[in-house]
Amino acid sequence: MIVQAPDGSKVENHDRERTIAAYALIDAEADCRCGNCRNYRSAFDITRLDPSLVVACELLGIDPYKALEVMPFTFDAATSLLLYQGHYPFFGTLVDQRIDSGDATWHFSWFTVGSARITPDAVELTFYIQLPWVLTERHESQAE
User: Fold this and answer.
1) Average model confidence (pLDDT) for the chain?
2) Which residues does 45 contact at the CB level (< 8 Å), separation at least 6?
3) Number of helices and strands in the chain (H, E)
4) 93 pLDDT tier (thresholds 50, 70, 90)
5) Distance CA 55, CA 66 (A)
6) Residue 10's pLDDT is what?
7) Each residue of 30-88: pLDDT tens digit?
8) Core vs surface per residue 107-128: b (16+ CB within 10 A) or e
9) Torsion angles phi and psi, residue 97, rounded to 5
10) What's phi and psi for 64, nearest 5 deg?
11) What are 108's strand-pairing partners?
12) d(Cα 62, Cα 4) in Å, to the nearest integer?
């Protein structure tokens, strides 16, 4: 079965059971304790993900609550929303990757980064999500 992302990137031969087993071992909370990651985990709301991403996670065996290598991009002080890029590693074969994913809410990539590199033969689903800043401490971009 081929799974296609909004940008047209595609994967096949995904090993759902192997991915599920790998996610069972992942402790996303222990992955990083920086403010941005703690906020991501505290604010995460699956309804803020693109619905097609949630379907892809189910097909591929990804636990959407265990994003790895979550990176903040922009913080909007007026709305207190932080745009995150997150990474879900999984086992499969990338058959078509786009050079430019444009404004796609998620896409597949042949490489894994940082803590999302659970094993050399994993590939990655990269996604974007806006979440509110919910920690009592101020975001690093907020002036005193």
Assistant:
1) 89
2) 131
3) 4, 7
4) very high
5) 15
6) 95
7) 878 888 889 999 999 999 999 999 999 999 999 999 998 899 888 888 887 999 999 99
8) bbbeebeebbebeeebbbbbbb
9) -120, 140
10) -65, -10
11) 125
12) 15
Q: pTM (2 decimals)?
A: 0.89
User: One-letter amino acid identity for 140?
Assistant: E
Question: In sequence order, what E strands does 16-133 have?
Answer: 68-76, 81-90, 93-96, 106-109, 123-132
The Cα 95–Cα 97 span in angstroms is 7
Can you read off the two tokens belonging to residue 49?
Answer: 């993900």
Amino acid identity at 104? A
Q: Which residue has the tokens 């799974």?
A: 3
Confidence tier at 142 by pLDDT (50, 70, 90): low
Q: What is the spatial distance between Cα 7 and Cα 104, in angstroms, rounded to a whole number? A: 6
